[in-house]
Amino acid sequence: MKTDYAMDEMQKKTGSILGLSDITENKLLWRQLVAELLGTFILVAIGCAACIAIVESNAPKTTSIALAFGLLVGSIVQVIGHVSGGHINPAVTAGLFVSGDIKLLKAVLYIIVQNLGAVAGAAFIRLAIPDARVENAGLGLTLPGPGVSDPQALLIEALITFLLVLVVQGVCDARRSDLKGSAPLAIGLSITACHAAVIPFTGSSMNPARSFGPALVMGDWTSHWVYWAGPIIGGVVAGFLYRFIFRISKDGESGSYDF
């Protein structure tokens, strides 16, 4: 009897982590996957176009790209957030997995379609923009800046993605009663700030899919591992931190508003 009970408990825990019901019972899953694919497609397509266009303009490069990506992500999350959560980023999905907000199988599917969307977005812009301009700007490839080593770039990418995922966790926490304003705007502003700070050092990816799409289309894998390892590490650390330290344990419970 004890063995049977232990087996039942193990199966329950395994099912809870894997999230089989998300695959077998969730009739909206296909819509969520389409939303993530489309959102990442738009992010990479327009984001890469912004990186290409800025090369030939007189606008400040770092500021313009930072604003483009921040406003773009905020807009996309506003549109698809109610469908899929608006992750559009494997590092965000990884962070939400370790915090318990998404199950493993669904997270894996999200990451797959995010990368498919990123490749499609990069390929679309590669076809839509003249070859000379694409080659000159590198299709928005993310690379360590001059004098920046791969380990240094990894630390920077981990830090900025840590901030992004922490902001996502905080503004999307349904247990908080103190939240005001726009969650998509807060997420977009965090991306703008991080891009403005570190574009010269790493290109400010914060998103493995955003780096994967252009790298695959252009066939350039220089330092590409950095743009997976750094953001995933930062996202996972943020997910653990929010789950075990910052998350409100009960509805309405907050130590910051007792004065």
Automatic annotation (TrEMBL):
TM stretches of this protein: 33-55, 67-86, 107-129, 153-172, 184-205, 225-246
Chief location bin: membrane
UniProt record, GO biological process: chemical homeostasis
Subcellular location: Membrane
Tree of life domain: Eukaryota
SUPFAM superfamilies documented for this protein: Aquaporin-like (SSF81338)
Annotated keywords: Membrane, Repeat, Transmembrane, Transmembrane helix, Transport
Membrane topology category: Multi-pass membrane protein
Function of the protein: Forms a water-specific channel.
NCBIfam families to which the protein is assigned, alphabetical: MIP (TIGR00861)
Assembly, per entry: Homotetramer.
Family: Belongs to the MIP/aquaporin (TC 1.A.8) family.
The protein's name: Aquaporin
Gene source species: Loxostege sticticalis
